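Two proteins, back to back. First:
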Amino acid sequence: MTALTLSTSSAATVRADAVVVGVAKGAKGVVVAPGAEAVDKAFGGKLAAVLETLGASAAEGEVTKLPAADGLKAPVVLAVGLGDAPAKGDGYDNEALRRAAGSAARALSGTKKAGFALPVEDAEAAAAVSEGALLGAYAFTTYRSNGNGSNAKGGKKNDAKSAPLGEATILGGKPRDKEFKAAAERSVALAAEINRARDLINTPSNDLDPKSFAAQAQAAAKEFGLKVEVLDEKALKKGGYGGLMGVGQGSETPPRLVRIAHTHPKADKTLALVGKGITYDSGGISLKPAGHNETMKCDMSGAAAVFAAVVAAARLGLKVNVTGWLALAENMPSGSATRPGDVLTMYSGKTVEVLNTDAEGRLVLADALTRASEENPDAIVDVATLTGAMVLALGNRTFAVMANDDAFRTSIHEIAEEVGEQSWPMPMPSELRKGMDSPVADIANMGERMGGGLVAGLFLKEFVGEGITWAHLDIAGPAFHEGAPWGYTPKGGTGSAVRTLVRLAERTAAGDLG
């Protein structure tokens, strides 16, 4: 991952291959943002005018490169748009800083070192710039050849021009200040774990199945001092995990349930995080139509987010117990696959009529939610790429938040917005429950088509232990980005929900959630 340093050096004197400055849309055109004063001075106070001559508008994420003026140590200046300038007396929004730093870092691929002279008024702003730079510099290169037929996975180096930015130096950061230092350390740990989730999501299903995913969790547990337990197909069958076994029985690679936990000796609260980990989703016998299969390696994004959040909690030493449950299976059609109309007996003892084998995520989550509930945590949050209906409702950048407690739902929504993840609170209308009534089982895995994302939430609610506060995050939209990169968001796996889960753990550790 890109290295991160803090520096009190001036943007004019920093020794780097490029210096990044921010520009914004002012009332009369482009204005230079705080942090870039020394660079503007080197241009005779006319940096904004030069940029406008080059066609820059300071639109959010817009990048303009130009040769450095005399007096600057760095040979290249990269101006990145911050969007509208804030009102007088207000600072720049942290998410604007995060996205700008990400856009700049992507534009500087192949560069060894860059100084980021963006507005850094305090440690919080420094953290935003740091996160943006580290996340924006991300590149998944495992399977790329380097141009001569050698594959990077075999140990060959990739083309230097496409290599991620080597080092990001945050100017205006104070390396000896406790708050700035802590902010930088947190940013490094958080970005590393978000990028871990991205790597998992981007890994093709022929190299990431339930068994190999579980092995990665075991390796991370050993490295970071976590407790880990893996239930294989024998243990799952013996334990009565009908949801996991029912989904996974059509595949040659059997399912797994992984429990991975960060514990703190002084913690008095416990969070349980449950992640959907369908390492490939063909739809099973209810096969997905053409055009819907190609990205289904990403259907384990919820489990990746949970895994990354637990490791991040350990790396940050949070005074809260965080237990992750990874419900891992591959959903494939075969002679042994679950059929529409089959009835599964879940770990909870409830029976489920499977009307559609492509509604499999809720089945594996149901078993994991019941198992997590047995430990009586203070709260449970599940994360899943669960329904296309939620993508239709909220688009590709916003995840849904549902809960059995309105205050908890509001808290998670506010936390997500605080850390820069777009979310929206959704209802759980009780009248939709009737649509899942089954003539042969306790409940069906499908209900009314309209409001399908809400129906899925109601199904999951049935498997949460009585009296336990619970929330459900449907990240089907933002988990995997198929368009061009923007801000710090890459093409492919995004690591959606990791920041929200980590901040939730931090808030819980601080006693801010009651």
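And the second protein:
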Amino acid sequence: MDINRRTVIRSATGVAALAAFGIAEGSAGSAFAGTSSSSSSSSTSSAYSLEFDSTAWSYDSTNDVYYQIGKVYVANPAATDYENLSIYVPGAYLTATANSDGTTYTATANPKGTVGDYSGRTAPIVIPVNTPGYAAQKPATSYSYSNVSQYLKAGLIYVWPGLRGRDSSTSTRSDAAPWGVTDLKAAIRFLRYNESVLPGSTDDVVLFGMSGGGAQDTVAGASGDSPLFYPYLRSIGAAMKDAKGRTLSDAVAGVMAWCPITSLHEANLSYEWNMGQFASTGTRASGTWTSAYSTDLAKAWPKYLNRLGLRDEQGRHLKLTESSSGVYLAGSYYDHLIEVITTSLNNFLSDNTFPYTVTTQGGPPGSGSTGSSTTYETVADYIAHLNTNSTWVTYDSTTNTVTVSSLEGFVNSQKTASKPVGAFDGYSRGQTENTVLGRGLDAPSHFAPLTRGVIKTNQNKYATYSDWDSAYGASAYDSDFARKDSVGKNMAWRLDAYNPLYFLSPAFDGYRRSQVAPHWRIRTGIMQGDTASTTEINVLLALQNYGIRNVDFATVWGQGHTQAERTGDSATNFISWVKSVTKN
């Protein structure tokens, strides 16, 4: 993509973007302009020291583990109940002596101590981001070896930070985005501030998480050292420079993301294009304003997609074009999506043997529903099952491979829409993500200008439906977008900070203004109705187009919103991947 085309889409939230997409006018300018000059400074007085206390280690002699729990990682925390971390270190990586209290130890790093393939100098640091639905990650309050044993046995150092999230806000404090990723970055900076007294390699920090956690580690991995986060980091007294005045970094080496629910700025649109256009019940039932809204969102997404300038590995420009039926179900991007679906099903056939039993999930815990199981004796039986309602898969028994021909057939068989129209930025602010980008306790907000554009363009048409409410109109979005958070930033700024493509695509102002992680592993369950398949595919493409060579990607057939893996278990596979991409 020609870099000069950055002028076409100045920001996902900017006026040029909306005008270029032909969706509606906007009011926000570039969210990146003036970032550094507007960054606030941290307080001159600090409530907590950033120095790590090397005299306060505890020791699990049974398992040979040193650990510390509850270390506040910023100087001026907004929430000490969340902004603290725990660190767990294999015993070989420290040289320790018992303190006079009989319970704690003073320890220094032992760079020559070894566990497996690692030493106290080279051991990677892994950080979990367990924030489903962008919820908070509670810090550890007590020691449990079972929670960290698999990682420590492999020679990794495990750091567990508390992180604020959409559900940790109080009546006086909003913990909505971007505070979750801000806290994560602050914890990483704390480790680098103290790297002279801690074992392990801060050059090899690897994040891992699923769903909202996968989304936040994706954002963190794409936005290393982005000035968008500086005002937030400074406000809580994060370590910006080391003791010698050298600038510190919050960039990471690797990201493991399972089912990342990300790219929220366009998620309403992609959801309706990918899945909603094939549904006709609930909010997509004929005769409702939301059915018309679904179609309009679906039509708007290709305009956005085509401006991204994504290319496949062969350099082919991926675009959507109009089709004789459906909404833009043609073009090189459509063909690429079909190739991804085909690869997923062929991997499934390669990885498994028949007879094969498919077990569906039951209802939520306590519902009494246990799901059901169906056994398919042969591949042909399974393919016939997939083609029950329409023929969209062709099977070649001589090669044991398939060809997928229809997105509609795939969606109706395997990936039906599980969310209502306005799946992320709800028209009544009722979706989880309205809280993620809200204004604190019980104050959900609209956040997506592309969605606002569709509403603005079509609200006169929607008003002719009996189920329309004027409260759903564009003015509600405008008022939410204008509000500023405690750091003085509006929704445009916050949304850019939480959009990985903002940092990865030349369509946005943040392109090449951050340090992007060099190693990525992305896994999704292809059946998940939680987000469009295009979400993770576009992150993959953007990373590859950016020049990131190490992206291990798979969308796993037969699995939904889970820590999907083609074979084996997620923790073992993650640990093996860390070994393959880090120095040892």
